[in-house]
TrEMBL record:
Species this chain originates from: Pseudooceanicola batsensis (strain ATCC BAA-863 / DSM 15984 / KCTC 12145 / HTCC2597) (Oceanicola batsensis)
Keywords for the protein's UniProt record, in alphabetical order: Cytoplasm, Pyridoxine biosynthesis, Transferase
Active-site residue list: H47, E74, H198
Annotated binding of 3-amino-2-oxopropyl phosphate, by residue: N11, R22, G199, G220, H221
Subunit structure and binding partners: Homooctamer; tetramer of dimers.
Descriptive protein name: Pyridoxine 5'-phosphate synthase
Record gene name: pdxJ
GO CC annotation terms, alphabetical: cytosol
Amino acid sequence: MSEPALRLGVNIDHVATVRNARGGAYPDPLRAAKLAQEAGADGITAHLREDRRHISDADIEGLMATLSLPLNFEMAATDEMQAIALRHRPHAVCIVPERREERTTEGGLEVAREENRLAHFIAPLREAGCRVSIFIAADSKQIEAAHRIGAQVIELHTGAYCDAHAEERFEERDAELARLTEMATFAHSLGLEVHAGHGLTYDTVQPVAALPEVRELNIGHFLVGEAIFRGLDPAIREMRRLMDDARAA
Ligand SMILES: CC(=O)[C@@H](O)[C@H](O)COP(=O)(O)O
Ligand SMILES: NCC(=O)COP(=O)(O)O
């Protein structure tokens, strides 16, 4: 079967957030991952935060043992996380910035200022066969740096675009979209595979899905929220439909 032009990676972090609110085992992120696969996801994304506020080490082990979809393992650039990634060797490792006190991943990784360290950090991950992705803002300096350190993929942070839409700052939203558009083209011209994600919803997904250079969208928080109202399977299928329609238009 040929690969879809635009892949959907379903992020299951916030299934774990709900589970962790009470401890115990319910709802199970692995069950969500299996359901996502049946609903048309092309991959699963999970972020093992240093503070383990949602996904746990056991979740990653379970995903690696049972999942037949590729796992996009999001992690900070720390020795602990590198060791975990090298033990599991997921399909992709996405390096993200982390600040302990943040509510969510608020910005992209500062690659340009940490080029040397990050080049050494990702080398063993690449050697282990993981595709290395860097989660960054739509900024040419960061994209060039990601390219120089040897990343194969960049994921553009769509949070600013989504926040501007949600807060009805439409001029700013359009400017953010223009930036994402220009930087997706730029990254592609360097030979990087382009992904995008963070904060995407049914209202914001289509303009990003329509960008021809974007090969994968990673979407989680909105889908888990929407699942409360319509169920996870229909919530994912609707996202898939919107993405496919935007791509076909
Ligand atoms: C890097 C990223 O964007 C994801 O990990 C996602 O936002 C879900 O996790 P958080 O809500 O913990 O940031
Ligand atoms: N890397 C972004 C991601 O995996 C999903 O982000 P969100 O949809 O949970 O905000």
